[in-house]
Amino acid sequence: MSPANDGTTPAPQPEEVSGPRSADLVSGAHAPHTLEVVEVRTGMFGTHGSGDTSGYGGLVQPVAMPGASARPYGSWFDEVVDVLAEVLAEAGTRFDDAIERVVVDPPGEHAELTLHVHRDHLVQVSQALRDDQDLRFELSLGVSGVHYPHDVGRELHAVYHLTSITHGRSLRLEVAVPDADPHVPSTTSVYPTNDWHERETWDFFGIVFDGHPALARIEMPDDWPGHPQRKDYPLGGIPVEYKGATVPPPDTRRSYS
Amino acid sequence: MGIEEAPSGFLLTSIEDLAGYFRKASLWPVTFGLACCAIEMMAAGASRFDLSRFGMEVFRASPRQADLMIVAGRVSQKMAPVVRQVYDQMSEPKWVLSMGVCASSGGMFNNYAIVQGVDHIVPVDIYLPGCPPRPEMLINAILALHEQIGDEPLGVNRKEAAKAAEAKALEATPTFQMKGMLR
Amino acid sequence: MSTSAEQETPRTAPRSTRPPVGDFDAGVPSFEASGGDWADITESAVAAAALGEERIVVNMGPQHPSTHGVLRLMLEIDGETVTEARCGIGYLHTGIEKNMEYRTWTQGVTFCTRMDYLAPIFQETAYCLAVEKLLGITADVPERASVIRVLMMELNRVASHLVCLGTGGNEMGATTVMTIGFTAREEILRIFEAVTGLRMNNAYVRPGGVSTDVPPDLVEQVRSTLPTVRSYLSQLGDLMLANPIFKGRLVGVGHLSLAGCMALGVTGPVLRSTGLPYDVRKSDPYCGYETYDFDVPTADGADCYDRVVLRLEECYQSLKIVEQCLERLEASAGQPVMVGDRKIAWPAQLAVGSDGQGNSLDHIKEIMGTSMEALIHHFKLVTEGFRVPVGQAWQTIEHPRGEMGVHLVSDGGTRPYRAHFRDPSFNNLQAVAAMCEGGQVADVVVAVASLDPVLGGVDR
After folding, report:
1. Is the domain covering C96-341+385-422+441-459 a CATH 1.10.10.10 domain?
2. How distant, in Å, are the alpha carbons of C12, C156, C233 from that of C226?
3. Which residue among A157, B93, C146, C200 is least crowded, i.e. fewest CB within 10 A of its CB?
4. Which keywords accompany this UniProt record (chain A) (predicted)?
């Protein structure tokens, strides 16, 4: 992680984003999409402050995750999205309300389908994905948290990976919530296996899973302050002493950004 | 010299030497496997390496019956109180072998979760490097510890030796201030 | 124990132990394990004791010889019957996922290999497959590299199952099972040492291929080892499968039905012991598993005994795959084991030097003597690493303990933005409550051993 933005330069907004690695790598790049800035990289060779004679010190490069894809998504993705839209419509939910966007990435034959779900509809969507016979994603492979401090208003992401043993498919659900209001409904009613995974995500990222039966820390001691795998939590190493030298811990070393 | 050749049926020795001689050959380790090193510790006790050649195959499940704690693996902040409690429950005299770099210094896991060396929690008698050390290395470390135990002073002498060691350590130049080649 | 409490408690029925009321009187110093909901549990146990119920909470672990490492079990027992079982984990949390965010993509292998230390090759391969997916070079990985990966993974599966069976036997008091298991494992570790230089924590698989080619005499070495491993496996089978004591301890114990497995996301041998032949090697093949001939063994007893049978059978199936790998290794001798892209593959070729380790002398001569560009390239690639396009990837593989998943997020830099491992043991441990409650205390040990949790993988 490059050092956090010190506040003097505001993070570039989505419409300014035009780096070579933002649009080119997105499949369906010409489709209308919003980009989420996940990282703002300054400089090039890891030196910050004084001493940068590289000439790249003023470089500011925003990094955005792949944006929404356009139809056809390819493979079985269209079918699953259509069926899901149908099932949601039967329950009286508009597809666009529940699913913020559909992303197919990385390009190529190993593309993965990601559904960005609005948190109010997460339980409903996962229930539909599990129960409908044409979807039948019966196996949940857990929850993974990601902290994007530069994705303003959507800092914390909870990522769910679902697998359909019946149809041999797997997809990803992603829910983004602001750091100020880190509440996501618990999916343990649909997938009991997510119990420990949600506890782990709470432990490491501070995402509160509402409705979880016992949301307690699982990996860290109960009285541990903070959520250690967030980007604003330091790695916490100590300097290592060698003969004639001291090596700082990895997070405070000079690094290539 | 065989015992039959003792000229008059008498042997003169010091109590320290005699106690050390007996103690070093009757170590009972406590089962204290934590991570990868624990598997190598188990391998050291199994057939190919056979720790029982040195009278140590009986790993005791209860710390009350053991006098050697082999800290085999990374010690997390959450595990640290448990390590200390197990150590406290062992009866004197007792020794600690820090097996592997993680237990000795934190190793490659220089982060929030791992205690940077088990010597922050318990006094360590011998450090064993390696990630993980091979079973042969563990056996070698145990034999080196045997020698150390055999030469251990008793009573007043022990306190004096400890004081001398502490004074020497306090006077020593910190490693990072040393000059010259790395070795 | 105060005597007054004893007088108040009516002795209506014979008890095996006295209720622990007196220990919690004010002013009486007591020592107890602290942290978590331990205090609540003991208080509720006291409340139940006051009602005349015999309710004892036993803390098993984190340092206990039969909990497969630093697992803590909190058991509420009624006599010998377990009425409630809960797990406490996190005693080996190492922060590996966070540490990986500060190292290059290639160095990440060194960290993830130390997660589940009984199956290091599986974490490495899963991680590298995910990185390759992000890089878009999955199809470019040379055939020989995939064959070597499969060979190493299958040997590793056998080694892992051997430890599972061995320690499982040891926990029931069958030391011979353990010594046979570990002796057979040594045979496989010798192969690992010949290939990677290390017995454990190999860091052998790299994004784009494997770090170095196998030694020229490996095929003969493996061929001569396989009969030995087979004979040890058959010894284990002879010792366990028809043994009345063994069957008495395992048959019908730790039952978990298919519905229970699916709800709890339990995969691997535990799921297959319910009769569902779900194996990622078949359902979503990677590393060319679709081209190998092997079966997915299943059973229908869904108990601990069936899981032992399945693990033994899986070992034989793995050896069958290993034999096919050997044929392919012979056919592909001399072919590359790393992608052709010199911006990803490390230039250094490893070779055994006069001191028994080191890089190839030819390569050192080239970078130090003839080509400055080669030296710069080497330096940049090793210290800075390669960049990986923005995005996220998910890769699952069939781990000895179940389905393992790797979730990687890249911000286009030289280091992972986030690496998350869905370890099967972490997930499977959730089933302890379902498998143990209602059984005997002694069955808890058997049930946990049949899940085969490795706490390094659970806590990461």
Report:
1. no
2. 63, 13, 10
3. B93
4. Cell membrane, Membrane, NAD, Oxidoreductase, Quinone, Translocase, Transport
